[in-house]
Design brief:
The chain is built from nine helices and no strands. It is globular, with a radius of gyration of 21 Å. The model has no long low-confidence stretch (mean pLDDT 90).
Length: 194
């Protein structure tokens, strides 16, 4: 089992197109087992980083104790699974609009297998975002291979599916920041000119 997971992860990191072609008929259970293993690994690393961060900040560590890394572990595990399911459905909408007709499970496969670099290496400080971008590229390759659409259609489907939530989050963040600044600004006292 572990040898299969390692071989599959290595395949998606080194030769994703060939590995997608080999995984075209994977059973949903095998795909979700792969994702679960990567998600547990990522959650353990994230919890470890949280614990390490607490160790370097003793004041923060005293107030949270052991519960903080445990919460991080479960948030990464449960949150990662929920986000993957919701985003797979959202991405499939765009894949379908751009001509992908092989089913939502193929979209989920592309997304799950495409997330390999991000889940394995995205936690690395400073350069972690590179692995997230790499995951997006692998996801595009997966959509192209598994749905048998052109590279342009796969790129457009993934780009739109990613950009709409990012833009909405930026607008929400700007709104909250503006609301916070305007609500917390102190009253201006009148100047006595006489």
């Amino acid at each position: 089992m572990i040898d299969t997971l390692v071989a599959r992860a290595k395949g998606f990191l080194q030769s994703p197109v060939e590995t997608f072609r080999q995984s075209k008929n994977d059973e949903p259970l095998a795909v979700f087992m792969y994702f679960g293993a990567l998600l547990v690994f990522n959650a353990i690393i994230s919890a470890g980083i949280a614990a390490l961060g607490m160790a370097t900040m003793p004041m923060n560590g005293m107030s949270y104790g052991l519960a903080f890394p445990v919460r991080i572990f479960f948030m990464m595990l449960v949150g990662g699974f929920i986000v993957m399911l919701v985003f797979a459905a959202w991405l499939h909408l765009w894949v379908y609009i751009f001509g992908g007709r092989k089913g939502i499970m193929q979209t989920a496969n592309a997304l799950i297998y495409g997330s390999t670099p991000s889940l394995l290496l995205g936690w690395i400080p400073i350069i972690g975002f590179i692995f997230t971008l790499w995951s997006v590229v692998i996801c595009i390759l997966g959509i192209r291979e598994l749905h048998e659409v052109s590279s342009m259609k796969a790129t457009l489907a993934v780009a739109i599916a990613v950009m709409i939530p990012v833009i909405l989050l930026l607008v929400l963040a700007a709104y909250l920041m503006i609301s916070y600044v305007t609500m917390t600004a102190g009253p201006v006292t009148p100047v006595n000119l006489f």
